[in-house]
Amino acid sequence: xxxxxxxxxxxxxxxxxxxxxxxxxxxxxxxxxxxxxxxxxxxxxxxxxxxxxxxxxxxxxxxxxxxxxxxxxxxxxxxxxxxxxxxxxxxxxxxxxxxxxxxxxxxxxxxxxxxxxxxxxxxxxxxxxxxxxxxxxxxxxxxxxxxxxxxxxxxxxxxxxxxxxxxxxxxxxxxxxxxxxxxxxxxxxxxxxxxxxxxxxxxxxxxxxxxxxxxxxxxxxxxxxxxxxxxxxxxxxxxxxxxxxxxxxxxxxxxxxxxxxxxxxxxxxxxxxxxxxxxxxxxxxxxxxxxxxxxxxxxxxxxxxxxxxxxxxxxxxxxxxxxxxxxxxxxxxxxxxxxxxxxxxxxxxxxxxxxxxxxxxxxxxxxxxxxxxxxxxxxxxxxxxxxx
Length: 388
Ligand SMILES: Nc1ncnc2c1ncn2[C@@H]1O[C@H](COP(=O)(O)OS(=O)(=O)O)[C@@H](OP(=O)(O)O)[C@H]1O
Hints:
Layout: H1 2-39, E1 49-51, E2 57-59, H2 60-63, H3 65-70, H4 85-96, H5 100-124, E3 132-133, E4 138-142, H6 148-155, E5 161-163, H7 179-185, E6 188-189, E7 194-198, H8 208-215, E8 220-225, H9 228-242, H10 249-253, E9 254-256, E10 261-262, H11 267-270, H12 274-282, E11 290-294, H13 295-300, H14 302-312, E12 324-327, E13 332-335, H15 360-381
Helix pairs in contact: 12-15
């Protein structure tokens, strides 16, 4: 009797432990199946997260306007009907608020390409304890697609200039982080060296002139300008390289295509109204503190344009024609070390993209549209840039 009771209870115990093992095995199996499921990519149907510039987690589908639009686009290569008002409004929204993650990615590509030049100039600088980080005394404030990267890279060759490679976007996107945050981004400089940065969106951002003035009313401001029509096409080409499904340049140009009404709310067109933006800067800075560099001449005569820039910055003319080599395949001047046989260094593939062909009538309409703005700009700056 005692023996049978013992057998029964040991049977119950072993049944219990088998049950536990089975339960554990089931959990392990489902975990393993889930991992396999993820590995083949099905987990992408789960909500995914991106980290925004302020370090906040955002649900991608909710926050990324591009994905929002993508989810509404016809599948299987169907045509995007840009005449639908909601598609057009969304597209413009997307185009005007260029995704920061995208622009950061492009910028990274850009800087990666230029890193060698930076390292070269850093290596040639004397590094000692008297180096400190300073706020910039000169800033390239614009314009987007004007040739700002080329100018910064050409300036970096100068031993009296140290510049931050990435675009800090301090005065437009990161102002709340404070001047110490900004200063910390800057490279160390020796006494007499100039600190510089470039962020092309400053020129068109309303709050920026007052903010730079508050930092220092003596800041020197450089604007690389380019024919506003070519600039707009370049801007569109950049956006399309990341978002191939956007409507055509022609359809985005007009509010109403049949009436031929130009859509000045599209940032690609708005940026080129240089006179309007300049008016805001002149409320804070005298013209003598601003230099306008011709984006066209920066390509056709980089040494000539660099002479003006070095004079404006009060520097010796160190960067001269000896530093440039025109690369016919790229169609642009590239940097070379004088008296050296090393290969010239060209900007990366995001600079000098092939532009799409735009309907000549639309181009002419834009030329007519910009003419009065250009004339006013020539008058304000005292310089005819020859775009008309
Ligand atoms: N030396 C050299 N090499 C390559 N590219 C050159 C050079 N000089 C000026 N450019 C023109 O610069 C245009 C890009 O302008 P940005 O650097 O201001 O663009 S960005 O706003 O920083 O994205 C870029 O525009 P796209 O040709 O439309 O790509 C170039 O035309």
